[in-house]
Amino acid sequence: MFKVLTLNNIADAGLRRLPGDRYEIGDEISDPDAVLLRSHDMHSMEIPESVAAIGRAGAGVNNIPVDAMSARGIPVFNAPGANANAVKELAVAGMLIAARNIISARDYVRGLDKEGDELDRAVEAGKKKFVGFELPGRTLGVIGLGAVGVEVANVALALGMKVVGFDPQITVERAWQLSAAVQQVDTLDRLFRNVDVVSVHVPLIEATRGLIDAARLKLMHDGAILVNFSRRGIVGREALFDALDSGKLHAFVTDFPTPELIAHPKVIALPHLGASTAEAEENCAIMVAENVKDFLENGNVRYSVNFPETIMPRNGTYRITIANANVPNMVGQITTCLAEAGLNIEDLLNKSRGELAYTLVDLDVPVPDDTVIALSAIEGVLTLRNLGKAIS
User: Whole-model pTM?
Assistant: First the structure.
């Protein structure tokens, strides 16, 4: 029986992927094998030694101490792309709302305390204050061509916009999904030069903190729109307000309010709505639950932010999994230890990612406890799991 601790409400569609005869799930589970969460901040909590996996029903993992988990040999799973449509829709809506001054216009009408002809005259007189611009023919810059960025770029093309994209680490899968009409550039400065709208879709890491600064904002057309549904720290605070106050930016649309942003008349700040649709929550929960389940039962790793993708089918054999420091001769030491125990390896898969390596080993007989102890004692081994035979 696997025990799964939930730190937030996880959509039932996802939890149903964890069969009740093999999984105990709850928000007060002790000694859990896995943790599922959405926005809960794990940085200040003591994560039990029993935890073998953490899964976030969403894309960003800033609320999880990923480096600390890597040091313990614990994979952190997320759900990239599961909420892509929801974020795409909100990003495009943000562009339209900002370009047509819809929020300001709505507020103006709500403030009209008039009736009949007097109301009609006030409406007609007021609309001149909210003249906007249309998106066709304008140029959109998309920073980050992952699951969301690709969809935003393709939709913008369908709206008649020109699109410039930047992502030096675009995957082959996303490149196939991206329209050939998107012009890809090799520097951010080239992207910002001559764009009318920028939409940001990158994680907040050290390399992206303050990515959008004063120098880059100055390259945009006057009266441009900046849309940020990624993370707050990607846009430099002082540079942003200078650009808004000077007229360089017509509007800033964001999912991460602060008191200063809320008070600024050119800012449209939303309460972190990016993935807040029933469909996105279900998709994220299903994706992360299935991947955590496959890891707990079979040791396979899909969509982890810190472990290498490692997938090996099971054919009725016995399996052990080993996470270790990515140093020379680890596989040699593992296979030697198994050979000395008289165990025959049926299949083996070793993958690495940065300073971490992960190995799946299938054998034709169960692995004795003393061999498990010997393998665990190899210098550099972080975790070892003896999974036994595949669960039918």
Answer: 0.80
